[in-house]
């Protein structure tokens, strides 16, 4: 799974508003109405950066593409973001003009809608279909373009056909210098074709925490419910291979120092989703075999994963974590996903 970064730049002049001292009370968004411009590759000076999958079409300015003809809420253009039936999605990011501080409460508004018509090719079937299913928008904060660091906020499913403002309230855990908006499914276990339209993002404002309690969603709060064993196995097969540990460390890779929106940066998210989703399939257990040497590191990673799942409220009775060398799959029971760090599969409970 590979991501790319495509850069869009315009000439806008916004200045953050400061309080006495050095605290920013309002951080404007460059090109807040997503006006169409020519693409340039200019590191750290671009307004909006396409954080989508390299295998998919570039992010589209609307109207005029995929049969979308809706009038913009502000200006002439806006973005459309899609999810697809091959487990890929669109995302777009920006470098902030002033950092967001940990512990502060922030508020921003963004206008979202769904088009009555949106047709594109299905990656799975190869034919043109309607991307009519509703999706939601996730807001990520990080320290580089397209970095999935902290999940700051998420919207409900966007079903409205007219433009409506969506309020995002959040509190960073660490200093944030970049934001990313990501299109996402209702249920990450089931891939489908859907879209939303995005226009006019307001400045980011500091607000009183007692008046505006932050949403501060945890990735593990994303609703998950596989419809069948096959759904969960498909999810494991696609995302399990991206899960990895920090080099020579016990903990999972977080991508805090990565320069792109790497799949591996979602290691904690994907593993948490797998651990939580197994509860819907009570007749199965999730087996994880930890690779790598020396054995001391392997054992430490096993202990770490057990604690990780406990903190994410996964059912330990449906989890089996052990060194890779101890058990080999029996005939007909190959690993569903395997990489240099982990091997993962589902097995029937005994």
Brief summary:
This protein has helices at 229-239, 267-277, 295-311; strands at residues 6-8, 17-18, 24-27, 48-50, 60-62, 78-83, 91-100, 106-113, 119-121, 128-130, 136-142, 150-154, 164-170, 176-184, 194-201, 204-206, 284-290, 319-323, 337-338, 342-348. The protein has 350 residues and is mainly β. Strands 2, 3, 5, 6, 8, 13, 15 and 16 form an 8-stranded antiparallel β-sheet that branches.
Present the secondary structure layout.
Elements: E1 6-8, E2 17-18, E3 24-27, E4 48-50, E5 60-62, E6 78-83, E7 91-100, E8 106-113, E9 119-121, E10 128-130, E11 136-142, E12 150-154, E13 164-170, E14 176-184, E15 194-201, E16 204-206, H1 229-239, H2 267-277, E17 284-290, H3 295-311, E18 319-323, E19 337-338, E20 342-348
Parallel strand pairs: 17-18
Antiparallel strand pairs: 1-4, 2-3, 3-16, 4-7, 5-6, 6-15, 7-14, 8-13, 8-15, 8-16, 9-10, 11-12, 11-14, 17-20, 19-20
Structure notes:
By secondary structure, the chain is mainly beta. The protein has 3 helices and 20 strands. The chain has helices spanning 229-239, 267-277, 295-311, and strands at residues 6-8, 17-18, 24-27, 48-50, 60-62, 78-83, 91-100, 106-113, 119-121, 128-130, 136-142, 150-154, 164-170, 176-184, 194-201, 204-206, 284-290, 319-323, 337-338, 342-348. It is globular. The chain starts with 5 loop residues before the first strand and ends with a strand. Residues 1-15 and 38-44 have low confidence and may be disordered.
